[in-house]
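Sequence of DUF4920 domain-containing protein (Hymenobacter jeongseonensis).
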Amino acid sequence: MKFILSFAAVLVVILLYIRFVPSAPINPVLPVDGAQKEVNGHNAEVPPGDEESPTTEEEAEEGASTSVPPAAPGQTYGAAITPAGALPMSAIATALGTRDSAQVKLVGKATAVCQAKGCWMTLPTADGKQMRVRFKDYAFFVPKDLTGRSVVVSGWAHRSTVTKEDLQHYAKDAGKSSQEIAAITQDEQQLTFMADGVLVQD
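Predicted 3D structure, token representation.
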């Protein structure tokens, strides 16, 4: 009988201990001592977020706010920036030089904007091609009626290969016909831009 009572008393103590004494998490989150930086092949420090994330573009777009203030002179999207020091689009080749990427501020006229959500736009380069501007971490969008307006963009310019699938996706977002989308059959070397801020000039 004493054994049963002793066992019951020990069991009660254990249960009370488990109930009222908090335990440490099994997988605690450790603090990070500052943001990590990635270094490209030319020793230029590229801020985190410029590389593609493991989530799909559609998933990232869903996570950003779709409430976009209307385009108006002086309106900014993303980080607040000024036109001071902005280079014309014709100078981007000089700004890049032989590097694959460079941090730069550019000014140009938007030639197309994503008509799904405003999640990208294009600016013309000196050789008549288009540089696609996306927005860092999909943290902001731009108005769908930004086409034809002069804008300043601040961020990182990259030389990159855009896949056929991405080109078709962009063409669909731009409102291209199914025939135009089907005509895209191969990857393309393009200048791309990851912007942390956009300013409408006019």
